[in-house]
Amino acid sequence: MVERALSLKNISKTFGKGHTKVEALKKMDFSVAKGELVAVIGPSGSGKSTFLTIAAGLQKPSTGQVSIGSKSIDAYNSKELAKLRFQKIGFVLQSSNLVPFLTVADQFTLIEKVDKSKKKPAAREDILQALGIEELKQQYPRDLSGGEKQRVAIACALYHDPDIILADEPTASLDSERAFEVVKLLGREARNKNKGIVMVTHDERLLAYCDRTVKIRDGKLADFIPDSAEV
Ligand SMILES: Nc1ncnc2c1ncn2[C@@H]1O[C@H](COP(=O)(O)OP(=O)(O)O)[C@@H](O)[C@H]1O
Ligand SMILES: [Mg+2]
Which CATH class is domain 33-60+71-223? Predict the structure, then answer.
């Protein structure tokens, strides 16, 4: 039986009212299994970021239910949800979510301070190497290029080692070779550590490294078969 890491059921999201009303998501169902890397594609404005932030419990849907494992997040109060989110979900933002006044090394130390069970120096070195950022340890985010920041943010998410990783265009500012490396790494992470990983992307060349692709169009989800006439 397939074990679900995260699922969304009957999710709608409406912004605004009257003539400014936007139906960003329309009764969408989605799930990611443990051990699976799923790509989400779709044109700009189709609802990808809305979908991902709702999946992460960062904003509430207008209707529908988000479940982590088999349990609906409605069962938790806001404090419990914040804790659950911290423990179970890693979120990689489009513009990297690094702490501006900490060096790269200290971004990792912060994770260890917040959660002592995360203190694994060997794992830290492996991740830094896999992402090619071991030379950047003493740098501050302001000294890094967009692509370097994005790789550090991915490294922090992996080091945190959550069951679920949600990444919004994590390869957008990387060159092709790095982008391929990052997607392969996410795929290995999903399979080897039984994580559920969802990656929003614009880049269809990356889909070959994902287990499955879904497409959002006009707030609805459909399976996407790469190499079909429909793009
Ligand atoms: N906080 C918000 N308030 C109003 N409209 C929003 C908000 N967030 C997103 N939208 C609208 O919802 C639609 C989907 O946006 P988004 O999820 O950011 O798309 P994508 O990530 O695919 O580019 C867009 O029409 C966008 O303008
Ligand atoms: Mg977006």
Answer: alpha beta
